Amino acid sequence: MNKRELLKALSAGSLALPWSRAAQPAGLARVVVVGGGMAGATAAKYLRLWSQRSIEVTLVEPSAQYTSNIMSNLVLTGQYSPSILNYGWSNLQRNYGIARVVGSVTAVEPGGSLGAWKVSIATASGTQVRYCERVVLAPGIQFDAVPSMQDASVPAPILHAWQAGPQTLQLRDQLAAMPATGRFVMTIPKAPYRCPPGPYERACVVADYLKRNKPGAQVLVLDANPDIMAERENFSLAFGTMYASNLRYLSGRVLRSVQASAGQAGGAVRVDVVVRDASGQELVMGSETHEAQVLNVIPPHRAGAIVQALGLADAGGFAPVDGRSFESTLPGRAGLHVIGDAAKTTLPKAGHVGNQGAKICADAIVRAFAGLPPYATPTANSACFSPLSNSLASWLTAVYQYEQDPVSGAWRFVARDQVAGTVGATEAAGPSTEQFEKMGTWYRSLMNETYL
User: Fold this and answer.
1) Any idea of the CA torsion for 240, 245, 250, 254, to the nearest 10 degrees?
2) Cα separation of 276 and 298, whole Å?
């Protein structure tokens, strides 16, 4: 694939993948999909589409609408209306015959003679039960607690806004009300976390907003990782040139606590961090304290509550899965699949990747119902555009191939740079207004492909 073809595929939202056209299931085929985000909605749609509607699909989701995390940083700075983030499931119900239950799954247990699995769902009218042969879990993430984060002495809510919705608007309002010479401090958790380039993107668009509206204000980025985790060239360029006057980036800063600062004007809070070197060792006398008028803490996170409750997550907080099918690799969990940000793979946790992984999972389930094994070496495309200001954007993409490590024997997704022909991701040569415009096309294409 040459660079022109790569960019065309990136703008369209996905690359063509070798999905099977498996035979229709011979017997009863029922799947319950838990969660209607990017991964869950895609899985439900393609299970119906690729099985020619022979698989009965129930989508369980408690929310009235899905709020996209993609593009939410530009809602945070007031550039776009919140409505640009909102999507629903009515088109999936109408166009593909997906049954939707408004509620939350409380239990998944063996179904006996009525099906492999019994799924209990809490709804407004009481508990409903669905029996099925397979369950696809796409609950997204939940956040770890931050020490002192809920301390009543802290004068204002401390927000992550890393799950788009009300917190996005609250943080937008805090940013707008920040003193003209205030400081916006954000913390980035240790990887893996949702959307590797997202925190650096947020730092850029907030710095851009402050530069234009509050030139005396500052941005401080406290990153628990040893370096920028994605699009290193473009974000380093932005931090060092575009925002050299109002943004400071500090790596190796692991959040320890958040506390109120007595007597500080503007409702300031204190952020205590431990400083670590590139190897993760704490530096001698390395702790720091920083003041912030607006504090944006992105806490460490893990797979959503239902994955934890079912014991599908490992000690790292995410669910180990077979990359050919996203089926749990834990004993006794055959037929339980975990997709999206909740899954533990070598794929990044991002909306576009959730869409891709869901297709791999759906394809494997269609094959399984037809008595066929999953495709042995599936591929997935990770693609995104990142705004660096209110008019400039860059992009990042990689094509991942599922393959076996020749030394360890472990199976994993490996990123291949399709332009250079090397292992790794490809990023834009630099930010541009043209890429900012293409970002809108990419976003609409991806969301429509998922929800229409």
Assistant:
1) -140
2) 18
Residue pair 364/17 in contact (Cβ under 8 Å)? The answer is no
Residue 429 has pLDDT above 70, yes or no: yes
Q: How many CB atoms lie within 10 A of CB 409?
A: 7
Please report where in the chains the tokens 């920028």 appear, as a residue. 228
* Contact criterion met (CB below 8 Å) for 317 and 303: yes
Assign 3-class secondary structure to 386-448.
EECCCCCEEEEEEEEEEEECCCCCCEEEEEECCCCCCECCEECCCCEHHHHHHHHHHHHHHHH
Q: What was the pLDDT predicted at 148? A: 58
Peptide bond just before 192 cis, omega within 30 deg = yes
Q: Which of 32, 52, 16, 39 is nearest to 370 (CA)?
A: 52
Identity of the amino acid at 92? L
Q: What does the pLDDT look like over 122-154, one tens digit per residue?
A: 999 999 999 999 999 999 999 998 765 545 555
The per-residue pLDDT for 185 is 96
* CA–CA distance, 251 with 58 (Å, rounded to integer): 44
Share of the chain above pLDDT 70, in %: 87
Count Cα atoms within 13 angstroms, Cβ side, for 374. 19
Contact 143, 177 (CB under 8 A): no
